[in-house]
Amino acid sequence: xxxxxxxxxxxxxxxxxxxxxxxxxxxxxxxxxxxxxxxxxxxxxxxxxxxxxxxxxxxxxxxxxxxxxxxxxxxxxxxxxxxxxxxxxxxxxxxxxxxxxxxxxxxxxxxxxxxxxxxxxxxxxxxxxxxxxxxxxxxxxxxxxxxxxxxxxxxxxxxxxxxxxxxxxxxxxxxxxxxxxxxxxxxxxxxxxxxxxxxxxxxxxxxxxxxxxxxxxxxxxxxxxxxxxxxxxxxxxxxxxxxxxxxxxxxxxxxxxxxxxxxxxxxxxxxxxxxxxxxxxxxxxxxxxxxxxxxxxxxxxxxxxxxxxxxxxxxxxxxxxxxxxxxxxxxxxxxxxxxxxxxxxxxxxxxxxxxxxxxxxxxxxxxxxxxxxxxxxxxxxxxx
Length: 384
Description:
By secondary structure, the protein is an alpha/beta fold. It is built from twelve helices and eleven strands.
């Protein structure tokens, strides 16, 4: 287990603002003026200059009065779901010692869970806010794709990339969301859909741990029914998202890789090679599945309706798993996260239960643009 910060420093926020008195950290994919965005890889740091200005999300929180207290560890160039970095180490998961924190926003989740800051910025392409929120027992948001500007945030797969954030407290989470979104929490939803395939896909212990939280959410919302998230199959959606995301990631980093021949861990090198090897026919098929997923989520989630599902199918795995075991865990997690990149709907992970002392999250999805509904749920969850 290791340090969650790659660099600690302080940048004071505006003297007055709605977030005055709060502190935040930023994943080391966000530019901070005068500092190199290292992206979890020493050769990326070596081949890039210090940022000239703050990333939009950093500047927005500073402008709202929050104090920046450092930059946090990320999986290399954001390619990871477990929070393992061969160069910077694996940040501590204080809620499940000896277990991974989840990635790639691992350091941000660890810092918040340890109480080292009130909130933290992360990014979510294929689950990189949702997974560590679940594993570390936090509130975490993946907003509607395209809702928040990504200027100054290192891209991985732009068709799926989003800025997200973490907090331990639902009210703080909602305040940070209001500052980033420019929108106050709205009304609670009136209809709830339970994704039976997602619950069935999860470990039995996770379903049992989340059952009280599902009942609690049902009480908050009212009307409840069951339906399938992915009629074609969660694994089919997972494969489509992985093909699209990895091919796009290779496009993003190809020029740098070919020019610099940088050092990578085996896992990250293998991921980039897989992205380079996606066949055009597979990419075209995956794009059709993305269209289907978007249509499915739009039908399931009209305004005023939310969908609940486990954020992850399991609690955080132990550090030091064998490569085949890690691959199996990652593949299963991807099946419950793929809809984010495919359909782009907003999603909040709520701290909702424990399996043998390790946290697991309950996720709530809303209609595109429905972040205000999710902020209202976070506030109500904290107070209920």
